[in-house]
Structures are given as C-alpha cells and as structure tokens.
Amino acid sequence: MGQLVVERVVKRYGPLLAVDDVSFEAAPGRIMGLLGPNGAGKTSTIRMITHITAPDDGRILYEGRPVGRWSQERLGYLPEERGLYRRMTVGEQLLYLAELKGVAREDARRKMARWLERFEATDWVGRKTEELSKGMQQKIQFIATLLHDPTLLILDEPFGGLDPINAELLREVIWELRDDGRCILFASHRMEQVEQLCDDICLISNGRIVLDGSLREIKRRFARNTVILEFEGGSDAMDDMEARGDVRVISRSHNRLEMMLSDGTSPRSVLDYALSHVDEIRKFEVTEPPLSEIFMSSVRKGN
Questions:
Q1: Which parts of the chain fold into alpha helices (H)?
Q2: Cα 241 to the center of its chain, rounded Å
Q3: Which of 47, 99, 164, 217 has a 20 to 30 A CA-CA distance from 105?
Q4: Given 3-state DSSP classes, what are the helix, strand and coil percentages for the chain, each rounded to the nearest 5?
C-alpha cells in the first residue's frame, strides 16, 4: 500500500489564501492526525487530497502518482457532515454505495454482513436511516466507508455521536486497519482522541504548517513541565500557588489536578506544598504537556 505525499500545495479562493505552501507525508501502516483550528485550511487540504478540488500550485501524490479519479476508487472518506439517505434502509444504501465504488453485489453483501456483525448492527439491515440514532447512523456511515476495501482512509471526526463502548470498538477497528497497512488521515478537534490514536501529527494554522512529525518526538521537544497530582482531601489544594502565578491549572476535578509549571517553579516545590495541603497523595508525576497545550502554544506562535 502506498504513501500519500502533499508537496508545496497552495490553494486560493479569490483573495483568500486558504492553503499556503503545505507539505507533509502520510505513510502506510501509520495514522496521521491532521489538526487545525477552524478556518486553518485543514478542510481545503482534505478536499484536494480527495480530488474534489485541485491545488493552484504544488502536487499531491498517492502511490507515486498524482491523485485523480483513479485514487478516488482507492479512497475511503468519512466526512464530518454525514451523507446517508434518510428513507433508504441500511441494507439498500450500503449495497448501493458499495456498487458505486465498483464492488460486485454478492461481494458487497458478504462484506456488508461481516461489518454489520462486527459493529453489532445486523438487526438494523431493514431499518431506515431516519429510524436510527445519531450514533447508529455514524456506525453505518463508517461501514459504508470500508466496503470497497480502501487503502487510503480519511476520517473526519469519526467519533461524533458514539457512546464510550462504541467509541472503543471504532478505535479497535481503526487500529486494525492501520496494522493492515492502510494509510490513514484522522482529522479531529478532540486532542485526547488524537493522542490515543495517532502516530504522527500535522498542525495547520492560517494555511501553513506550524508543527509536524512523530507525535512521540513532538512531545519530547517540549519541556517536562506538567505535573499530575492525584490526592485525597484538600479540594482547594494549589490555589495559593496558582494565585501567585507559580503554576497554571490545566484541568481540575475533586481529587485530581493537572498543572503547568511556570518558569522558576520546581516540581519539588509543588510536591512540598501539596504535602502540607492535602491529606494523602496517591500520584505525583512530572511529564510532557498534553497535546492540547502543545496545540494552543503552536497556534499562538504561528499567528
């Protein structure tokens, strides 16, 4: 299975420069997280990869060839805006969508049955889309994306509407597709999902790439200046340090804090303070910042 190469791509819409000299590579057997705030150029880049639009400059290659009608046949695209026919039954539209991609009807029936069973949706085959919940529709849309065995997958917010159990099932399937050698682009605003799923990331802001590479290596570039504290007692723990500006609280629950250390604040000083303000410490860990902090910091620097 081939590699996707986006090479110095530019896209303009009138006076708006939506994509400005963007280059990245997505390798088979890895998941690339394509990230960016609203209006960053992410969707415009996806539309060019899928050959819905063409770049004004630069080129996009898949398996060493410029993308085109031929690559659309090997592409599985799950857009953020769903496109199921509300009054068709699940079975009718899955067969119809598979045949549009050139899958023979009997082959499509066999694949449909296998995926419906995998997603615990066999009983839905005769139901109309409008009778299904949002999460059920999401699973059907995902199955439709896979029926022609695509080698290149673009998944835009694929977890929308899914409960935790079905979200975990979908994650398992995506990992299996990765391990099978598919080339996968994963677009999402949910940083925790990106950290769970992705091997590589590409962050676009104002039409330009501000951060890209292996997720593991990117996290290592940033200082280990994040402290995770889990404790018993003392719900106002760290309030004084936060008020003085020694730390910045990223997330807080009744007995868990995640904090960024300010310059000059040592992990030991945070630990000493916590020991005198909580009843019991269950966990104290110094680690890299979460991807959400890296994302915001990189976007601010890129603007």
A1: 42-49, 69-72, 90-100, 105-118, 134-146, 164-179, 191-197, 215-221, 239-244, 267-275, 291-302
A2: 34
A3: 47
A4: 35, 30, 30
